[in-house]
Specification:
Blueprint: E1 5-8, H1 14-25, H2 48-56, E2 60-67, E3 70-83, E4 90-101, H3 110-126, E5 130-136, H4 140-147, E6 152-158, E7 175-181
This protein binds coenzyme A.
Amino acid sequence: MSTPVFRYAIQTDVPVLVDLIERAYRSPETAGSWVSEAHLLKGPRTSDAEITGLIALPESRFLVAELDGRIAGCCLLQKTKAVDGQKGKMGEAAYFGMFAIDPSIHSSGLGKIILAEAERQVQALWSVKSMVMTVINLRDKLIEYYQRRGYRLTGAIVPFPFSETSGEVTRDFHLVEMRKDFA
Ligand SMILES: CC(C)(COP(=O)(O)OP(=O)(O)OC[C@H]1O[C@@H](n2cnc3c(N)ncnc32)[C@H](O)[C@@H]1OP(=O)(O)O)[C@@H](O)C(=O)NCCC(=O)NCCS
């Protein structure tokens, strides 16, 4: 794999980002693999309108990684509020989401590189001391992947945002919050 080049997404990236996210999360390309949620959800993961709106928000960034001039991975970074693990009260943190790697290079190491870069970026952007995310509770291997990168389950449970388009196979799951406090 060549060295990734990082930048923030702009509106003209929207169709490429939507395609990348759809292919990574629920498409037949990844179905059956540890990275897929296709066994739980069959509807669209996102839309042009959602990504357009997220890019436009002032305290929100889509970090993209390009390999040889093409977007190969992305994640959403947002300034948010979360319970400070040490002080036990609300403080500023960064939210990490929409993490997607081109299926043709899954498990090649780009995910780890993007996650580490995301941690650097949110500290530089917003001086936050921690990152939070939510993960489907049934995705054990993904939870372990984040645990190996220093994230821990906070115990907080968030209802999954089922919608008319989420295409769920079952409703027997929810989201769990994970958090990493930066040293
Ligand atoms: C999850 C995802 C972002 C990871 O990125 P990636 O570039 O594919 O993964 P990396 O190369 O960084 O790491 C591969 C890891 O998978 C692990 N792995 C590989 N095959 C595996 C398997 N069959 N079972 C479990 N883990 C496996 C490797 O051990 C490695 O982890 P380690 O370095 O801690 O040992 C990516 O696969 C993806 O886009 N998934 C679909 C979307 C998604 O689920 N996003 C996260 C939502 S919260």
